UniProtKB/TrEMBL annotation:
The keyword Transmembrane applies. The chain crosses the membrane at residues 75-94, 146-170, 182-204. This is Putative zinc-finger domain-containing protein. It comes from the Bacteria. Keywords: Membrane, Transmembrane, Transmembrane helix. Coiled coil: none annotated. It comes from Natronincola ferrireducens. Residues 6-36 form the Putative zinc-finger domain.
């Protein structure tokens, strides 16, 4: 006759019995071999089931880890390739093959649009007398061509990198790269661009401050300005700036007095200067050789001392 406690073994194992029944079952199993054997069988089956479940879960976990690593490698590979291609996006204007031209033009135009939102006010209009000197590339940083070149190389590269990484995300395993990760990626991209644009603004503002104060002049190119043309006269740079007459001119330009009002001056003839600053800044300046008034490309007026004006006229061959 089968033992009546055998039907309670599963509930005993899962602790579904009352405290009183649990105690009675334990007492019974001490004297009933059939129940002891039945409990051992149940324990063996339970352990096997748990082991199989763990193995399945481990396989799923391993698969997820592999998919994650593969996706990360793909995203970084796409990003690196995108950045390198973006560095050459400036070449799209000379590419004759329509497919590569379009691919390279996309990050450049997106970068140009983004920069235009923040820096379009820096551009010179075509009627500005300084336009022919400073209109290069996108034209957002006319007074610092080095910064302008760096921005035109790096910004499209960053755009291309994030576009490529976005493709990497979208083509990755959806079980691993979920919406939360993509949102985090977008926020990271926005933060990087904000920091990049902030650094650009800070550096260019520093350049404009140096130009405004005529601070840190490293070279000056002097032209003779006539009504419809100009001709090169002399360049003051690292090779001759230590000569007294040239050094005095640089010092005199740095010490020019800012003017609050527009002075009477002849902008058609006189001397035209291209003043270059440490750190890549540059500005043109027109000097009226009769009055010593100087108009710089950042739309400011300065008054040169009589001594500085005389030295400029002297090194320019006595032009008057």
């Amino acid at each position: 006759m089968p033992c009546s406690y055998k039907d309670k073994l599963q509930d005993y194992l899962e602790e579904k019995l009352s405290s009183e029944e649990m105690a009675k079952t334990e007492d019974h199993m001490e004297i009933c071999n059939d129940c002891q054997e039945g409990l051992d069988n149940l324990l063996s089956q339970s352990l096997l089931l748990q082991k199989q479940t763990l193995e399945v879960e481990d396989e799923v976990l391993v698969e997820k880890i592999k998919a994650h690593r593969k996706g990360i490698r793909r995203i970084y590979a796409y990003g690196t390739l995108g950045f390198l291609l973006g560095l050459f996006s400036l070449k799209y204007t000379t590419d004759s093959f329509i497919v590569t031209k379009a691919i390279m033009a996309l990050p450049y135009k997106v970068a140009e649009f983004m920069l235009g939102i923040f820096f379009s006010g820096n551009k010179l209009n075509q009627w500005d007398p300084m336009y022919r000197h400073f209109q290069r590339g996108m034209g957002y940083f006319p007074h610092n061509p080095i910064l302008g070149l760096i921005v035109e190389l790096v910004t499209p590269a960053l755009v291309a990198m994030f576009l490529a990484m976005a493709v990497g995300y979208l083509t990755s395993d959806k079980r691993v790269f979920q919406r939360k990760r993509i949102v985090r990626f977008i926020l990271s991209a926005a933060l990087i661009f904000a920091l990049w644009f902030g650094a650009i603004y800070g550096f260019y503002h520093h350049t404009l401050t140096k130009i405004e104060n005529l601070e840190g002049i490293k070279s000056v190119i002097i032209y003779e300005k006539q009504e419809f043309s100009s001709s090169w006269i002399v360049k003051i740079d690292q090779y001759n700036i230590h000569e007294a007459r040239y050094n005095n001119i640089v010092i005199g330009l740095s010490e020019a007095t800012p003017l609050d009002s527009y002075p009477p001056m002849d902008l058609k003839e006189g001397l035209e200067l291209l003043i270059q600053f440490q750190g890549g800044g540059e500005v043109t300046a027109h000097v009226d050789t009769d009055t010593g008034a100087m108009y710089t490309g950042d739309r400011r007026f300065h008054q040169l001392s009589d001594e500085t004006l005389s030295q400029l006229i002297e090194v320019s061959g006595g032009i008057k």
